[in-house]
Amino acid sequence: MTDVYAMSHKILIVDDDAHIREVLSFALGKAGMETSEAGDGEAALAAIERASPDLVVLDINMPRMDGLEVCRRLRGQQGTGGDLPILFLSSRDDEIDRVVGLELGADDYVVKPFSPREVVARVSAILKRGGRALAAAGSSGPVGHNRLRLDPDAWEAEWAGTPVPVTVTEFQLLLLLASLPSKVFTRDAIIDRLHGPGFAVTDRTIDSHIRNVRHKFASLGGTDLIETRAGVGYRIGRCLGEPG
Fold first, then answer.
1. pLDDT tens digits, residue range 96-131?
2. What Å distances lie between residue 130 and 14, 41, 84, 121, 167, CA to CA?
3. Which residue of 23, 121, 126, 142 has the smallest Cβ count within 10 Å?
4. Dist. CA 14–CA 74, nearest whole Å
């Protein structure tokens, strides 16, 4: 069955293996998404600039420019690529690549060999997180917590009035925590709120997103953005710019 929500979304598939691109293009197209393809990292950057896709399925191991470098360049720029959702494709033996990919700002990853249905499910989950996070937060308006401000309508995060570039997943994570400032969320609870119950995401993925967003705000003095409760999980910090 075609997912009505997915029908307006454009997905860029980047892999140097033409067969993989063909398989994923068919599976995502069958799910109602519009797809385009690129065979290497340089072509991917050009396609992103030209077509502004809603999400990129990005292979890590490619000649000329690998997926990690593509992600690094996208996350280092403002505008089109700074918050573009990225789903990495990674070889089974490249555990370190998957970890580095998440630390660079990828939203999720799938390990090769994979089922096309799993890729479709992961892509759909990333695209739908916004609505799920807003429903969990119980608000569609701006959320403020001391120096932190989140605007769900504009998908913008600010610290003391200064915009902070965050990925889709990082924004949704912050929105969840800031909307319930007294609540400590376990990693499993965060996964359930952002992805849906039963979705296969590791604790390491959540920890990587937490580490990334802390780093971005710390550069502006937001050292107390997120509080760790040892053995339990995470909650929003004081957000006053004081050591946490």
1. 666 677 777 788 888 888 899 999 988 988 887 644
2. 24, 27, 13, 15, 12
3. 142
4. 14
Residue 150 β-bridge partners: 143, 157
* Sign, CA torsion 60/63/66/67: negative
For residue 197, is pLDDT > 90? no
Lookup result for tokens 């600010």: 158
* Bridge partners for 110 per DSSP: 89
CB 123 within 8 Å of CB 87 = yes
CA dihedral over 109, 110, 111, 112, signed as positive or negative: negative
Structure tokens at 81: 């690529």
pTM: 0.65
Structure-block tokens of residue 42: 């340089």
> 91 by DSSP, 3-state: which?
strand
Number of residues assigned to the chain? 244
Angle at 189 between CA 158 and CA 117, to 5 degrees: 95
What dihedral angle (degrees, nearest 10) is formed by the CA atoms of 19, 25, 30, 35?
-170
* pLDDT exceeds 70 at position 204: yes
What pLDDT band is residue 1 in, cutting at 50, 70 and 90? very low
On the 0-12 / 13-18 / 19+ scale of CB atoms within 10 A, 29 is middle
User: CA-to-CA distance for 148 and 241, rounded, in angstroms?
Assistant: 10
pLDDT in tens, 11-58: 999 999 999 999 999 999 999 999 999 999 999 999 998 888 989 999
CA-CA distance, 92 to 183, in Å (whole number)?
36
